[in-house]
Amino acid sequence: MKKKRITLKDIANEFNVSIATVSKALNDSYEISTKTKAKIQEYAKEHHYKPNSIALNLQNKKTKTIGVIIPNILNHFFTKVFVGIEKTATEKGYNLITCISNESYEKEVSAMELLKNSALDGFILSIAEETQVKQNFTHFQNTINQGIPIVMFDRVTDDIECDKVIVNDKEGAYNATNHFIETGCKNIAIVSTIHNLSVGKLRLEGYKKALLEAGIPVDKSLILKVDEFNDINTLLKALLDSRKVDAMLCLEEDSAVNTLKMVSSKGYKVPEDISIIGFTNGVLPRYVTPTITTISQHGIYLGETATKMLIEKLENENSETSHTTKVIKTNLIERETTKPLY
Protein backbone atom coordinates (compact mmCIF):
# COMPACT_ATOMS: atom_id res chain seq x y z
CA MET A 1 0.00 0.00 0.00
CA LYS A 2 1.12 3.57 -0.68
CA LYS A 3 2.46 5.45 2.35
CA LYS A 4 -0.08 7.89 3.76
CA ARG A 5 0.95 11.27 5.10
CA ILE A 6 0.25 11.15 8.84
CA THR A 7 -2.11 13.81 10.22
CA LEU A 8 -3.04 15.18 13.64
CA LYS A 9 -6.23 13.12 13.41
CA ASP A 10 -4.24 9.91 12.89
CA ILE A 11 -2.13 10.63 15.98
CA ALA A 12 -5.23 11.51 18.00
CA ASN A 13 -6.86 8.21 17.03
CA GLU A 14 -3.74 6.30 17.98
CA PHE A 15 -3.83 7.64 21.56
CA ASN A 16 -7.62 8.02 21.82
CA VAL A 17 -7.36 11.73 22.56
CA SER A 18 -8.63 14.89 20.84
CA ILE A 19 -6.85 16.64 17.99
CA ALA A 20 -6.48 19.66 20.28
CA THR A 21 -4.61 17.51 22.81
CA VAL A 22 -2.23 16.25 20.12
CA SER A 23 -1.62 19.78 18.87
CA LYS A 24 -0.86 21.01 22.37
CA ALA A 25 1.44 18.05 23.05
CA LEU A 26 3.42 18.69 19.86
CA ASN A 27 3.69 22.36 20.82
CA ASP A 28 5.00 21.35 24.28
CA SER A 29 2.05 22.94 26.09
CA TYR A 30 2.12 22.95 29.91
CA GLU A 31 -1.55 21.82 29.83
CA ILE A 32 -0.51 18.29 28.80
CA SER A 33 1.27 15.91 31.15
CA THR A 34 4.96 15.24 30.56
CA LYS A 35 4.32 11.51 30.04
CA THR A 36 1.58 12.06 27.44
CA LYS A 37 3.63 14.71 25.61
CA ALA A 38 6.62 12.37 25.41
CA LYS A 39 4.55 9.52 23.95
CA ILE A 40 2.84 11.71 21.35
CA GLN A 41 6.04 13.50 20.34
CA GLU A 42 7.93 10.21 19.97
CA TYR A 43 5.13 8.69 17.88
CA ALA A 44 5.02 11.77 15.62
CA LYS A 45 8.78 11.63 15.14
CA GLU A 46 8.77 7.92 14.29
CA HIS A 47 6.03 8.42 11.70
CA HIS A 48 7.64 11.50 10.12
CA TYR A 49 4.81 13.84 11.03
CA LYS A 50 5.30 17.35 9.69
CA PRO A 51 2.85 20.13 10.57
CA ASN A 52 1.20 21.96 7.70
CA SER A 53 -1.01 24.81 8.81
CA ILE A 54 -2.70 25.33 5.45
CA ALA A 55 -3.44 21.66 5.03
CA LEU A 56 -4.88 21.53 8.56
CA ASN A 57 -7.20 24.40 7.70
CA LEU A 58 -8.38 22.36 4.75
CA GLN A 59 -9.19 19.53 7.19
CA ASN A 60 -6.71 17.23 5.51
CA LYS A 61 -8.45 17.24 2.12
CA LYS A 62 -6.36 17.11 -1.05
CA THR A 63 -5.27 20.50 -2.34
CA LYS A 64 -4.91 19.40 -5.99
CA THR A 65 -1.61 21.28 -6.08
CA ILE A 66 1.68 19.92 -7.44
CA GLY A 67 5.14 21.27 -6.66
CA VAL A 68 7.55 21.46 -9.60
CA ILE A 69 11.30 21.98 -9.20
CA ILE A 70 13.31 22.67 -12.36
CA PRO A 71 17.12 23.00 -12.38
CA ASN A 72 17.48 25.62 -15.09
CA ILE A 73 14.64 27.54 -16.75
CA LEU A 74 17.02 28.94 -19.42
CA ASN A 75 17.50 25.42 -20.77
CA HIS A 76 14.98 25.01 -23.60
CA PHE A 77 14.49 21.33 -22.81
CA PHE A 78 13.23 22.11 -19.30
CA THR A 79 10.98 24.83 -20.69
CA LYS A 80 9.37 22.26 -22.99
CA VAL A 81 9.00 19.78 -20.14
CA PHE A 82 7.22 22.43 -18.08
CA VAL A 83 4.83 23.12 -20.97
CA GLY A 84 3.88 19.42 -20.88
CA ILE A 85 3.51 19.44 -17.09
CA GLU A 86 1.31 22.56 -17.13
CA LYS A 87 -0.87 21.27 -19.98
CA THR A 88 -1.66 17.96 -18.30
CA ALA A 89 -2.05 19.43 -14.80
CA THR A 90 -4.58 21.97 -16.11
CA GLU A 91 -6.51 19.26 -17.97
CA LYS A 92 -6.71 17.21 -14.76
CA GLY A 93 -7.73 20.17 -12.60
CA TYR A 94 -4.44 20.55 -10.71
CA ASN A 95 -2.53 23.73 -9.86
CA LEU A 96 1.24 24.12 -9.94
CA ILE A 97 3.73 25.85 -7.67
CA THR A 98 7.09 26.09 -9.40
CA CYS A 99 10.60 26.73 -8.08
CA ILE A 100 13.95 26.94 -9.87
CA SER A 101 16.90 25.30 -8.10
CA ASN A 102 19.39 27.03 -10.43
CA GLU A 103 21.55 23.87 -10.19
CA SER A 104 22.09 24.51 -6.43
CA TYR A 105 21.77 21.81 -3.76
CA GLU A 106 20.87 24.35 -1.07
CA LYS A 107 18.21 26.00 -3.24
CA GLU A 108 16.75 22.60 -4.08
CA VAL A 109 16.50 21.64 -0.39
CA SER A 110 14.99 25.04 0.50
CA ALA A 111 12.49 24.81 -2.36
CA MET A 112 11.28 21.41 -1.18
CA GLU A 113 10.82 22.67 2.38
CA LEU A 114 8.99 25.75 1.16
CA LEU A 115 6.68 23.78 -1.10
CA LYS A 116 5.98 21.10 1.51
CA ASN A 117 4.64 23.88 3.74
CA SER A 118 2.44 25.22 0.93
CA ALA A 119 -0.20 22.48 1.03
CA LEU A 120 0.69 20.37 -2.00
CA ASP A 121 0.00 16.75 -2.87
CA GLY A 122 3.21 15.72 -4.65
CA PHE A 123 6.37 16.73 -6.49
CA ILE A 124 7.67 16.58 -10.07
CA LEU A 125 11.36 17.42 -10.23
CA SER A 126 14.69 17.07 -11.99
CA ILE A 127 17.80 16.93 -9.80
CA ALA A 128 20.14 19.93 -9.60
CA GLU A 129 23.71 19.51 -10.86
CA GLU A 130 25.23 20.25 -7.44
CA THR A 131 22.99 17.62 -5.83
CA GLN A 132 24.19 15.00 -8.32
CA VAL A 133 27.80 15.96 -7.62
CA LYS A 134 27.27 15.79 -3.83
CA GLN A 135 25.24 12.56 -4.11
CA ASN A 136 23.17 13.74 -1.14
CA PHE A 137 19.52 12.81 -1.66
CA THR A 138 18.30 12.90 1.96
CA HIS A 139 15.75 15.65 1.26
CA PHE A 140 14.04 13.45 -1.35
CA GLN A 141 13.84 10.46 0.99
CA ASN A 142 12.52 12.61 3.85
CA THR A 143 9.77 13.91 1.58
CA ILE A 144 8.73 10.39 0.56
CA ASN A 145 8.82 9.30 4.22
CA GLN A 146 6.32 12.06 4.97
CA GLY A 147 3.89 10.47 2.52
CA ILE A 148 4.47 12.95 -0.30
CA PRO A 149 5.05 11.17 -3.62
CA ILE A 150 7.76 12.28 -6.05
CA VAL A 151 8.13 11.75 -9.79
CA MET A 152 11.66 12.46 -11.03
CA PHE A 153 12.33 13.28 -14.67
CA ASP A 154 15.42 13.40 -16.88
CA ARG A 155 18.03 13.68 -14.11
CA VAL A 156 17.28 10.92 -11.65
CA THR A 157 19.05 8.72 -9.11
CA ASP A 158 18.85 5.00 -8.40
CA ASP A 159 19.30 5.77 -4.69
CA ILE A 160 15.70 6.96 -4.35
CA GLU A 161 12.73 4.66 -4.96
CA CYS A 162 10.07 6.66 -6.77
CA ASP A 163 8.44 6.92 -10.18
CA LYS A 164 10.74 8.26 -12.90
CA VAL A 165 10.59 9.41 -16.51
CA ILE A 166 13.88 9.43 -18.36
CA VAL A 167 15.14 10.06 -21.87
CA ASN A 168 17.12 7.28 -23.51
CA ASP A 169 20.21 9.51 -23.56
CA LYS A 170 22.64 6.68 -24.21
CA GLU A 171 20.70 5.53 -27.27
CA GLY A 172 20.40 9.13 -28.52
CA ALA A 173 24.17 9.68 -28.45
CA TYR A 174 24.78 6.21 -29.88
CA ASN A 175 22.47 6.89 -32.86
CA ALA A 176 24.00 10.33 -33.46
CA THR A 177 27.54 8.94 -33.45
CA ASN A 178 26.48 6.17 -35.81
CA HIS A 179 25.01 8.79 -38.14
CA PHE A 180 28.42 10.48 -38.28
CA ILE A 181 30.11 7.15 -38.99
CA GLU A 182 27.62 6.21 -41.70
CA THR A 183 28.26 9.53 -43.47
CA GLY A 184 32.02 8.86 -43.54
CA CYS A 185 33.25 10.60 -40.39
CA LYS A 186 36.07 8.94 -38.45
CA ASN A 187 37.53 11.60 -36.13
CA ILE A 188 34.50 12.34 -33.99
CA ALA A 189 34.84 14.71 -31.04
CA ILE A 190 32.36 15.15 -28.21
CA VAL A 191 31.72 18.49 -26.48
CA SER A 192 30.25 18.24 -22.98
CA THR A 193 29.34 20.95 -20.49
CA ILE A 194 27.27 18.43 -18.48
CA HIS A 195 29.79 15.67 -17.71
CA ASN A 196 28.92 15.88 -13.98
CA LEU A 197 25.28 15.00 -14.67
CA SER A 198 23.78 11.53 -15.01
CA VAL A 199 22.51 12.42 -18.49
CA GLY A 200 25.95 13.62 -19.60
CA LYS A 201 27.55 10.36 -18.47
CA LEU A 202 24.95 8.30 -20.34
CA ARG A 203 25.48 10.30 -23.55
CA LEU A 204 29.23 9.76 -23.29
CA GLU A 205 28.62 6.01 -22.90
CA GLY A 206 26.50 5.97 -26.06
CA TYR A 207 29.20 7.83 -28.00
CA LYS A 208 31.91 5.39 -26.88
CA LYS A 209 29.75 2.35 -27.61
CA ALA A 210 29.13 3.45 -31.20
CA LEU A 211 32.84 4.11 -31.81
CA LEU A 212 33.96 0.76 -30.41
CA GLU A 213 31.34 -1.18 -32.38
CA ALA A 214 32.61 0.53 -35.55
CA GLY A 215 36.21 -0.40 -34.70
CA ILE A 216 37.19 3.22 -34.01
CA PRO A 217 39.36 3.62 -30.88
CA VAL A 218 38.13 6.07 -28.24
CA ASP A 219 40.55 9.02 -28.28
CA LYS A 220 40.43 10.86 -24.95
CA SER A 221 41.87 13.98 -26.56
CA LEU A 222 38.65 14.24 -28.62
CA ILE A 223 36.49 14.29 -25.47
CA LEU A 224 36.13 17.96 -24.55
CA LYS A 225 34.82 18.50 -21.01
CA VAL A 226 33.95 22.10 -20.27
CA ASP A 227 33.19 23.30 -16.73
CA GLU A 228 32.66 26.64 -14.98
CA PHE A 229 36.42 27.22 -14.79
CA ASN A 230 36.95 26.92 -18.55
CA ASP A 231 36.03 29.06 -21.52
CA ILE A 232 34.37 26.85 -24.13
CA ASN A 233 35.67 28.90 -27.06
CA THR A 234 39.26 28.64 -25.84
CA LEU A 235 38.97 24.86 -25.47
CA LEU A 236 37.29 24.47 -28.87
CA LYS A 237 40.01 26.53 -30.56
CA ALA A 238 42.73 24.45 -28.89
CA LEU A 239 41.03 21.21 -29.99
CA LEU A 240 40.63 22.31 -33.61
CA ASP A 241 44.21 23.59 -33.75
CA SER A 242 45.72 20.39 -32.38
CA ARG A 243 43.60 17.53 -33.71
CA LYS A 244 42.05 16.42 -36.98
CA VAL A 245 38.28 16.52 -36.44
CA ASP A 246 35.55 15.78 -38.97
CA ALA A 247 32.51 15.56 -36.66
CA MET A 248 31.44 17.03 -33.31
CA LEU A 249 28.68 15.74 -31.03
CA CYS A 250 27.54 18.48 -28.62
CA LEU A 251 25.68 17.34 -25.52
CA GLU A 252 23.46 20.38 -25.13
CA GLU A 253 22.09 23.28 -27.17
CA ASP A 254 24.38 26.18 -26.23
CA SER A 255 27.56 24.16 -26.82
CA ALA A 256 26.26 23.18 -30.28
CA VAL A 257 25.78 26.85 -31.22
CA ASN A 258 29.21 27.81 -29.82
CA THR A 259 30.81 24.93 -31.68
CA LEU A 260 29.21 25.94 -34.98
CA LYS A 261 30.43 29.54 -34.54
CA MET A 262 33.99 28.45 -33.71
CA VAL A 263 34.19 25.91 -36.54
CA SER A 264 32.93 28.50 -39.04
CA SER A 265 35.31 31.20 -37.73
CA LYS A 266 38.24 28.82 -38.27
CA GLY A 267 37.32 28.58 -41.96
CA TYR A 268 35.89 25.06 -41.94
CA LYS A 269 32.90 24.30 -44.14
CA VAL A 270 29.93 22.67 -42.39
CA PRO A 271 29.14 19.85 -43.04
CA GLU A 272 31.71 19.26 -45.81
CA ASP A 273 34.73 19.55 -43.47
CA ILE A 274 33.13 19.10 -40.05
CA SER A 275 29.64 17.78 -39.24
CA ILE A 276 27.80 18.85 -36.08
CA ILE A 277 24.95 17.32 -34.06
CA GLY A 278 23.54 18.82 -30.86
CA PHE A 279 21.25 17.55 -28.12
CA THR A 280 17.92 19.31 -27.51
CA ASN A 281 15.73 20.40 -30.37
CA GLY A 282 15.27 23.96 -29.16
CA VAL A 283 14.80 27.26 -30.96
CA LEU A 284 18.43 28.24 -31.58
CA PRO A 285 19.44 25.27 -33.77
CA ARG A 286 16.65 26.11 -36.19
CA TYR A 287 17.59 29.77 -36.64
CA VAL A 288 21.37 29.75 -36.97
CA THR A 289 23.08 29.32 -40.33
CA PRO A 290 23.50 26.53 -41.21
CA THR A 291 20.65 25.01 -39.20
CA ILE A 292 21.89 22.39 -36.72
CA THR A 293 20.99 18.71 -36.82
CA THR A 294 19.62 17.84 -33.37
CA ILE A 295 18.54 14.99 -31.14
CA SER A 296 14.96 15.56 -30.00
CA GLN A 297 14.19 14.45 -26.43
CA HIS A 298 10.44 15.11 -26.75
CA GLY A 299 10.32 17.37 -23.69
CA ILE A 300 6.59 18.18 -23.87
CA TYR A 301 5.65 14.51 -24.01
CA LEU A 302 8.03 13.78 -21.13
CA GLY A 303 6.35 16.46 -19.00
CA GLU A 304 2.90 15.11 -19.84
CA THR A 305 3.99 11.58 -18.93
CA ALA A 306 5.51 12.60 -15.58
CA THR A 307 2.37 14.53 -14.61
CA LYS A 308 0.04 11.67 -15.52
CA MET A 309 2.16 9.28 -13.43
CA LEU A 310 1.97 11.53 -10.36
CA ILE A 311 -1.75 12.25 -10.65
CA GLU A 312 -2.49 8.55 -11.08
CA LYS A 313 -0.57 7.93 -7.84
CA LEU A 314 -2.42 10.71 -6.04
CA GLU A 315 -5.86 9.59 -7.15
CA ASN A 316 -5.29 5.90 -6.43
CA GLU A 317 -4.22 5.85 -2.80
CA ASN A 318 -4.61 2.09 -2.58
CA SER A 319 -2.21 1.48 -5.47
CA GLU A 320 0.81 -0.75 -5.00
CA THR A 321 4.01 0.79 -3.67
CA SER A 322 6.01 -0.50 -6.63
CA HIS A 323 7.53 2.22 -8.78
CA THR A 324 7.77 2.62 -12.53
CA THR A 325 10.50 4.05 -14.73
CA LYS A 326 9.30 5.11 -18.18
CA VAL A 327 11.87 5.64 -20.95
CA ILE A 328 11.29 8.20 -23.72
CA LYS A 329 13.02 7.41 -27.02
CA THR A 330 14.90 10.11 -28.92
CA ASN A 331 15.01 10.78 -32.63
CA LEU A 332 17.47 12.54 -34.91
CA ILE A 333 16.21 15.63 -36.75
CA GLU A 334 18.47 16.10 -39.75
CA ARG A 335 19.24 19.64 -40.86
CA GLU A 336 22.18 21.35 -42.58
CA THR A 337 25.14 20.52 -40.31
CA THR A 338 25.29 16.82 -41.28
CA LYS A 339 25.79 15.08 -44.59
CA PRO A 340 22.84 13.17 -46.00
CA LEU A 341 22.87 9.37 -45.93
CA TYR A 342 23.13 7.84 -49.41
Features:
six-stranded mixed beta sheet, alpha/beta, six-stranded parallel beta sheet, 342 residues, 44% helix
End-to-end span in angstroms? 55 Å
Helix and strand composition category: alpha/beta
- Shape designation: elongated
Give the amount of beta strand, in percent: 15-25%
Poorly predicted ranges: 53-60
Q: Compute the gyration radius: what is it?
A: 25 Å
Task: Report the order of strands and helices.
Answer: HHHHEHEHEHHEEHEHEHEHEHEHEE
Summarize model confidence as the mean pLDDT.
92
Helix content: 40-55%
Detailed description of the structure:
- The chain is an alpha/beta fold and 342 residues long.
- It contains 14 helices and 12 strands.
- The protein has helices at residues 8-15, 19-26, 34-46, 53-57, 76-91, 105-116, 129-134, 138-145, 169-182, 198-213, 232-242, 253-265, 284-287, 299-315, and strands spanning 65-70, 95-100, 122-125, 150-153, 163-167, 188-192, 223-225, 247-250, 275-279, 293-296, 325-328, 331-333.
- The strands form 2 sheets. Strands 2-1-3-4-5-11 form a 6-stranded parallel β-sheet, sandwiched between helices. Strands 7-6-8-9-10-12 form a 6-stranded mixed β-sheet, with helices on both faces.
- Helix 12 (253-265) links the parallel strand 8 (247-250) and strand 9 (275-279).
- Helix 5 (76-91) runs parallel beside helix 14.
- It is elongated and about 80 Å long.
- The protein starts with 7 loop residues before the first helix and ends in a 9-residue tail after the last strand.
- The model is unreliable at 53-60 (pLDDT under 50).
